[in-house]
Amino acid sequence: MTDDVRNIRTALDAVAHHWQPHRLTSVNDYDVKVAKLHGEFVWHSHPDTDELFLVVEGTLTIQLRDRDVVLGPSDVFVVPRGVEHCPRADDEVSIVLVEPRGTVNTGDAGGDRTEPLRELP
């Protein structure tokens, strides 16, 4: 990753498909990713790491087994390691994610919704 200035909105404009994470930059052993979400994802967990969600635009519901967490623009929520969750976006949502390098978007669930991390131009 270069030491150039990156713009979150410009990066999100380059994201063409929902649920495809793109690396914005890296900090130590963590990736800062941007993504656009729409619809319901898959129930999954990340057994070895927390996952930080920051909503840029829209409303994101992070479904947990015991409650729903609703995030709007500028809201941040951390899903603790090992906690099963399922993100849902009734309308398009733009987000920033922070998680250790190599974290797979579907966590322990795998399956056809698993996407490789893409690089931004």
Automatic annotation (TrEMBL):
Disordered: annotated segments: 101-121
Q: Which InterPro entries match?
A: Cupin_2 (IPR013096), PKS_Associated_Protein (IPR052044), RmlC-like_jellyroll (IPR014710), RmlC_Cupin_sf (IPR011051)
The UniProt record lists the Cupin type-2 domain at 39-94
Q: Where is the composition biased (Basic and acidic residues)?
A: 110-121
Q: Which domain of life is it from?
A: Bacteria
Q: Which PANTHER family match?
A: 16.7 KDA PROTEIN IN WHIE LOCUS
Listed name of the protein? Cupin domain-containing protein
